[in-house]
Amino acid sequence: MGDRSSLSDIAFITKASVPGKPIDKPVNDPTVTSDKVIKANYGNPPPYNGGSPILSYEVQMDDGLAGAFKSFVGSEIRTLLTYQVTQGVVKGRQHRFRYRARNIIGWGPWSDDSAILAATVPEPPGRPLFKNF
To answer: How much is the pLDDT for 9?
Structure first.
């Protein structure tokens, strides 16, 4: 029988892959969104993590004309489930948003797109005035 001192320690390998495609799409937060700022919530429920914790999300927004997406990459997982953007927001345009997750293996696929209108909810009309004829 061989010398057991030449055996290595036991190693464990976790099989992982990139995160799955998110189930949800970014959703408008109407309490903040206006014609100058858009706040999008996402990650509810979080996408499948691929067997390794999610480290970050990447959020993208287009120009409101179905143009190319611009990326906003998050860094701290606990602060990433909402994104507020002021640059590039154009009043009256439907800006498209999407997101994806990253774990130690890499980036997963993009969520489906959602469109958020850059607009302010109008004020209610004033009281009607009645005239005597």
So the answer is: 75
